[in-house]
Amino acid sequence: MPALDPVLSRIDAGLDASVERLFSLLRIKSISTDKAYSAECRKAAQFLVEDLKSIGFEASIRDTPGHPMVVAHHSGETDAAPHVLFYGHYDVQPVDPLELWDADPFDPAIKELNGRKVLTGRGTSDDKGQLMTFVEACRAFKAERGSLPCKVTILFEGEEESGSPSLKPFLEANKDELKADFALVCDTGMWDHETPAISTGLRGLVGEEITVHAADRDLHSGHFGGAAANPIHILSKVLAGLHDETGRVTLDGFYDGVEEIPSNIRQSWNELGMTAEKFLGPIGLSEPAGEKNRSLLELIWARPTAEVNGITGGYSGQGFKTVIAAQASAKISFRLVQKQDPEKIRAAFRDYVRSKMPADCRVEFHEHGGSPGIQLSYDSPFLGVAKQALSDEWPKPAVMIAMGGSIPIVGDFQKLLGMESLLVGFGLEDDRIHSPNEKYELASFHKGARSWARILQGIADAQ
Amino acid sequence: MPALDPVLSRIDAGLDASVERLFSLLRIKSISTDKAYSAECRKAAQFLVEDLKSIGFEASIRDTPGHPMVVAHHSGETDAAPHVLFYGHYDVQPVDPLELWDADPFDPAIKELNGRKVLTGRGTSDDKGQLMTFVEACRAFKAERGSLPCKVTILFEGEEESGSPSLKPFLEANKDELKADFALVCDTGMWDHETPAISTGLRGLVGEEITVHAADRDLHSGHFGGAAANPIHILSKVLAGLHDETGRVTLDGFYDGVEEIPSNIRQSWNELGMTAEKFLGPIGLSEPAGEKNRSLLELIWARPTAEVNGITGGYSGQGFKTVIAAQASAKISFRLVQKQDPEKIRAAFRDYVRSKMPADCRVEFHEHGGSPGIQLSYDSPFLGVAKQALSDEWPKPAVMIAMGGSIPIVGDFQKLLGMESLLVGFGLEDDRIHSPNEKYELASFHKGARSWARILQGIADAQ
Fold it and tell me: In this protein, which residues make up the domain named Peptidase M20 dimerisation (chains A, B) (predicted)?
């Protein structure tokens, strides 16, 4: 097997040029949620196509009803090595409030922060800086060897920050072209700046909005109070009854499909040393609020939740109004793990809410999306390869973590292309993605590219 | 004693002009809870001063730290007749939600509803239409006789809908000027559109606003859900715990000072034939929602309540936002009866709320007024005079009822000026006060003025 060191040395020697290329991409204002920036989104896609072509990929822009996809293909050194699909997104979040930025969000720079070099600007961490780590690894292979260690397909999306409306239809329409042995997704983070991480679990989501209707108009609480149904009382009882005194969700069958995490995973999470103080302290809290007798990481990574995201009813302006409202509403989200079924949980929730309605009141439901949780198998050989490769590159060994939020692409790859994903990324907690003054550590960018080189070689060598 | 008929005929003949004057007052947007309408409140006070001056009152605007009072005096035909203080309020409730109004709330009109003529617009029934019935009765006496049958002082307030913060200090500072033999308060209703009523019991009110603070910022529910405290959950539990399963309020000592009503009163109320169906049917409900095993009139007239008047927290706009809010708020009012102590109840509520706060969250309280319930004596001679006058005017004899709402002024008159009140008003159940499409029956306005003429004459004649 060919030595990897010359490839890694290429990455080191070419770092300044790599940063310059990334900066060119960062200067393109590819904000996908705002139609005013549609041409910029296309420009970013075009930039990537040209860059991938320059290192030998067969790359093209693929139109969608929204912003275009970039699809690129490159063969591997041997047909024996697995075929991987790499996913990233070139669109970025809006930049408002602009006045909170220290510099123009689209004028990237290298700065020093807490004694470490960082790249600043919108998209540095989410996700242009991340996706370019992979492109730079490929470039180094090509420069050193004239080939890639395995067959690579690349998919760059331009609508990740605006709900990915074109993604599923595109995957379905291009199944054969996009199907690979597994996917590499680079849109996640490290455990800390010395410890790389692979995300193996992602929570799913069920969103529901309920409106409780009582009287057919707002009422005077002096006149009707004590006799007429108050929808805020009914709603409060519904919401208060969602959790029992141990913090468990009370819905029938809610925990069906939820298993305890394996003891070795529990052990490795315990070793990460996360505490309620470390996690909640920075936001002004100290006590974990969910299920009792669970570690903090378990609560946010491996346990399902019910959270009320919004509530409104009656008068909430200045002063006081002695009104009994005609209606009251709440938005509720459930985070799902493992094999929980989103539609069963939605049905259990609706049954529960209906059971709390007085005979003369009614409730209206409105659905806000549903996706199951994702649990990647711990016994995939690629997981072991990635863990070794990352541990070789970084000061500390790689850890397997989970994520509280959802990355819908992972579910889509599983469902539509029958393909598992390996989630590796180099973002850090304090990268301020979606906020002013986004940054990406120069080390994330540099060692990220080196990590991908190691992973690609590892995948080829494992055969 | 001079004949009353010519005075009543004056009222009949001047009805169109009376309605026009009321409309001019209704067009002034005197919403007292919203600072944006302060100038409109003053304009309404000024309008009333000018109108009272035009019929010979010595009238003036009296500044307060909030909206001004109107005070006016007029001597009686003889010094032998009692001196009465008439009270009403010129401020009105906010008009939101504006989209539910059939017409501009401040563009009053005469319409036909259920075969009867009604005046429509904010304040028609609460309380501008009501207070003008008294002014129109005085105008008719002056036009016909050049005098009033007894000495009259008028007090119009501009903060009744916002907790009357300036009222007590004003009464204390102007005791000598405002003290009369008794007060006439026109802010109540009839039993039905044929049956006039005198209110002898009034529920008191304690208003509280609470804000639960958790994290020091809004959080992403994917990242923090299951670990961070959710203030909407805490607030829901607080509110859901205010009532037990029998509908009783759970606060410590809440029912101290509450006695069962005398059996003769219970009997007379039963004879009014009110049912849940009759009371709740018109607003689209059917089941009494308060304490179990109480008659409907008992629930709204003689039992204390706790009602949530408004709630807000998190995201309640269009669509969905997976946020855990930093804070959530609710406005709560307690209706009090008999000898319940408002400050003891406020303290019990605050203790209860504090007991529900997790150690790392905090609650902020904001007081919105407090007044005890009122029970007026059944043996006042003025009560007999008013009962006779009202029974003469309307198709059916007057009945003595209680009221679910609060009129704090009655307690203040009792406590600060040592003066009992006679509560007579012409509002109807379906007047939609505090709601969109408020109305006042033209008959209430017309026969209300005639009723006051009869009462004023009756008071003078009784001496």
Answer: 200-360
Segment A92-122, tens digit of pLDDT:
998 988 998 999 999 999 999 999 999 999 9
Q: For chain B, what percentages of helix, strand and coil (3-state, to nearest 5) are there?
A: 35, 25, 40
**Residue B117 host element (H or E):** strand B116-120
Nearest chain A alpha carbon to B205: A222
Among B371, B391, B426, where does a domain finish? Answer: B371
Query: ipTM, 2 decimals?
Result: 0.82
A430 near B CB under 8 A = no
CB–CB of B64/B162 below 8 Å?
no
Using an 8 Å CB-CB cutoff, list chain B residues near A287.
Answer: 229, 358-360
Q: CA A426 → CA A133, A159, A191, A391, A459, distances in Å? A: 9, 21, 9, 13, 19
Beta pairing, strands B327-336 & B116-120: unpaired
Domain end call among B371, B395, B415:
B371
Based on the domain organization, do B95 and B223 belong to the same domain? no
Q: Do A78 and A208 have their domain in common?
A: no
pLDDT at B403: 79
* Averaged pLDDT score across all residues of chain B: 94
Q: Which of B220, B236, B250, B374 to mutate to test the interface with A (most CBs of A within 10 A)?
A: B236
Tens digits of residue pLDDT in A280-320: 999 999 999 999 999 999 999 999 999 999 999 999 999 88
- Reported as a single tens digit per residue, the pLDDT across B136-156 is 999 999 999 999 999 999 999
Same domain, B310 and B186: no
Residues A451 and A363 in one domain: no
Confidence of residue A379 (pLDDT cuts 50, 70, 90): confident
Q: Is A276 on the interface with B (CB under 8 A)?
A: yes
The tally of domains found in chain B comes to: 2
Same domain, A325 and A252: yes
Q: Report yes or no on B279 lying in a domain.
A: no
List of chain A residues whose C-beta atoms are within 8 Å of the C-beta of residue B163: 319-320
Looking up residue B381, the CATH number of its domain turns out to be 3.40.630.10
Q: Give residue B119's region: left, alpha or beta (phi > 0; psi -120 to 50).
A: beta
For strands A151-157 and A69-74, give the pairing.
Answer: antiparallel
Q: Do B229 and A331 touch (CB under 8 A)?
A: no
Give the C-alpha separation, A155 to A86, whole Å: 6
| Same domain (yes/no): A44, A75 | yes
Residues of A in contact with B227 (CB under 8 A): 276, 279-280, 288-290, 296, 299-300
Count of alpha carbons within 13 Å of A458, Cβ hemisphere only?
Answer: 19
Q: In this prediction, what percent of chain A has a pLDDT beyond 90?
A: 81
Model confidence pLDDT, tens digit, residues A418-458: 999 999 999 998 999 988 899 999 999 999 999 999 999 99
Vertex B43, ends B39 and B47: CA angle to 5°?
175
Residues of chain B found within 8 Å of residue A402, distances taken between Cβ atoms: none
* Residue A23 falls inside a structural domain: yes
| Separation in Å, CA A382 to CA A77, A84, A167, A198 | 18, 11, 25, 11
In angstroms, the CA A232 to CA A236 distance is: 6
CB contact at 8 A, A442 and A119? yes
Distance between CA atoms of A440 and A437, rounded to whole angstroms? 10
Question: A106: how many CB neighbours lie within 10 A of its CB?
Answer: 18
Residues A435, A309 within the same domain: no
Chain Cα centroid distance, residue A337 = 15
A312: CATH: 3.30.70.360
Q: Is B217 a domain residue?
A: yes
Same domain, A235 and A351: yes
Q: How many CA atoms lie within 13 A of B70 on its CB side?
A: 29
Within-domain flag for B132: yes
Indicate the SS3 state at residue A86. strand
pLDDT at B406 over 80: no
